[in-house]
Each structure stands twice: as structure tokens, then as C-alpha cells.
TrEMBL record:
Protein name: Transcriptional regulator, AraC family
Keyword Chaperone attributed: no
Gene3D superfamilies to which the protein is assigned, alphabetical: Homeodomain-like
Domain HTH araC/xylS-type: 176-277
PROSITE patterns: HTH_ARAC_FAMILY_2 (PS01124)
Record flagged with keyword Endoplasmic reticulum: no
Native source organism of the sequence: Haliscomenobacter hydrossis (strain ATCC 27775 / DSM 1100 / LMG 10767 / O)
Keyword set, alphabetical order: DNA-binding, Transcription, Transcription regulation
Length: 287
């Protein structure tokens, strides 16, 4: 069988070929193409598309394409099930699910940076997942620190790190990068969609949508974007002579009416009233 997915693979798009070649179809061949071409080329090549939105072999709720292949093909081996958790944790930046996930992500991202040829990357990735599967199946209970002195030093380090661990939950790398990306787009007044930022971060849109509010003030993606636009509007109302129509345009609203409605919803008053109150406050301060 032929399989096809998005170019520049890192986690799921390498783990899935490894799983397919080893447990589903040993003769499988894989294509990597730009995302907009996946479905078109799938039809041309007679290939099965995977790990893209809207196809059978893709993310399903909180689960990755790797998980779906296990379910679809009834692969219930415990080692594969455990490997699936590691892949899912690395692919969705939920490192708390499996301690190995952060290392898998780091190695995968490094390999993608070093190799621009996707098929060369897949070849190396196959060896990586061979090794990880062997560890899960045969070696995970072995300890590197067998010596009593080494064990004592490791325990001392664990105790130290536990004392230093902040109480607040760690913000994942993708959320930090996303906050900067969104701010850049808002500052330059470019349109921004969930699909665009998910592609830029190499994360599945369904995961970003689901996890977004957890790291962005309990707001949805749309609510957070509107909040930033209103904050930008407040700055312009306070520090510029732009008209309300101009501010509506500069902050990405379709028209002044839309701007007025969202501003009042968030700030509690109309933008014209806010500007007058702010100017009056400045005048009273000078007096």
C-alpha cells in the first residue's frame, strides 16, 4: 500500500510509518508532500492519506494517528500500547504523560533540523523507533545507576529538584511560542487562523483548539484574539488621534459597528465614551 502525509515529519508522521511497516504492511511506501497537496496527490497516487484533518487515519479526540492505527488494526500488544502513550505525549507536548516524551521530541526536532530530506529523516526515524520499542519491551526496568553511590547522588539530585519545582504547572513550549506568534500577528494586523498557527507550530489543530484555554486565561482562541485586539484599541484610543473607524480597521475588526460591540462587551462602555473619559482624566490631572 501507498501512504501519504504532510512534509517535514517529526513525531506522529514518522512513528506511524514505523508502526505500519512493522505491524500492518511490510511493503508500505510513504510520500511526504506540502499539506495543501496531500488529498490531491493521494487520489493521483492511490495512496492512503494520514495525519491530516478530515481523513480516516488521523487524530481522534485526545488521541494521535498512531493511536488510531493501533485501534483500527487491533494491535493490542502492551509494548505498543505503552509506546503509543510516549508518542502521544511527545506529539501533543504533554510531557507529563510519559517521562520519555520530552527526549523523543528533542531528538525528533533535532533530526528534522539536521535533515531536509524527509525520506532520509524517515530512514533514521525508523531506527529511533526500533530502539524505543526495544527499550519499552525489554529494558525499561533496567537502571543506569546500579552502583549504590550513584543511586545516592541521583536521589540527592531528585530531592533538590523537587524543592525547586514551582507549584504552578509548567507552561508547555508550544504555548509560549504561540503567545509570541499571536502577538506578532495582532501587532501587524494580519489575519490569523487556528489552522495557520497549528501548522506553524507543527501541532494538530484539534489539539491546539482543545488545549488553548488551559494556557490562555481560560479563553477560547477567538476570545483571546478579540481580547488582544481590544487591548491594542485601548492603546490607540489613549495615545493617538485616529478616528474610531480607523482604530477599528487597525485592530482587525470588520467595521466600526463590530468594533463598538466587542469593545463594549469586554470593557463595559463604548470606545467613544472611553476616549472622552480618558481625555477628561488627563485634563483633570494637568489642572
Amino acid at each position: 500500500m501507498k501512504w501519504i502525509t504532510r512534509e517535514r515529519p517529526k513525531i506522529d508522521r514518522i512513528a506511524c510509518p514505523w508502526l505500519i511497516k512493522n505491524f500492518v504492511d511490510p511493503e508500505a511506501f510513504f510520500y511526504y508532500v506540502p499539506e495543501p497537496q496531500v488529498l490531491e496527490q493521494a487520489a493521483v497516487l492511490g495512496a492512503i492519506p494520514y495525519d491530516v484533518p478530515g481523513v480516516e487515519y488521523s487524530h481522534e479526540g485526545a488521541f494521535c494517528t498512531f493511536d488510531y492505527i493501533l485501534k483500527k488494526h487491533h494491535l493490542s500488544e502492551p509494548a505498543l500500547q505503552q509506546l503509543a502513550v510516549i508518542v502521544r505525549a511527545a506529539d501533543t507536548d504533554q510531557f507529563a504523560l510519559a517521562p520519555q516524551a520530552a527526549g523523543l521530541w528533542a531528538i525528533s526536532a533535532g533530526l528534522a533540523h539536521q535533515h531536509q530530506d524527509d525520506h532520509k529523516l524517515l530512514e533514521i526515524g525508523m531506527l529511533l523507533y526500533d530502539a524505543l520499542y526495544a527499550w519499552v519491551k525489554h529494558l525499561q526496568h533496567e537502571k543506569h545507576t546500579g552502583d549504590p553511590v550513584e543511586q545516592m547522588l541521583v536521589q540527592m539530585m531528585k530531592n533538590y529538584l523537587a524543592e525547586k519545582e514551582p507549584a504552578k504547572q509548567r507552561v508547555p513550549t508550544w504555548a509560549k511560542a504561540l503567545k509570541e506568534t499571536i502577538q506578532d500577528y495582532v501587532d501587524t494586523n494580519f489575519s490569523l487562523s487556528l489552522k495557520d498557527i497549528s501548522q506553524e507550530l507543527d501541532l494538530h489543530p484539534a489539539y491546539v483548539s482543545r488545549a488553548f484555554s488551559k494556557y490562555f486565561d481560560n479563553l477560547s482562541f477567538g476570545e483571546y484574539i478579540r481580547k488582544l485586539r481590544i487591548e491594542k484599541a485601548v492603546q490607540l484610543l489613549e495615545n493617538s488621534t485616529y478616528s474610531l473607524t480607523e482604530i477599528a480597521y487597525l485592530t482587525g475588526f470588520s467595521d466600526q459597528s463590530h468594533f463598538n460591540r466587542i469593545f463594549k462587551k469586554i470593557m463595559g462602555i463604548q470606545p467613544s465614551v472611553y476616549r472622552k473619559s480618558f481625555e477628561k482624566g488627563k485634563k483633570d490631572t494637568r489642572d
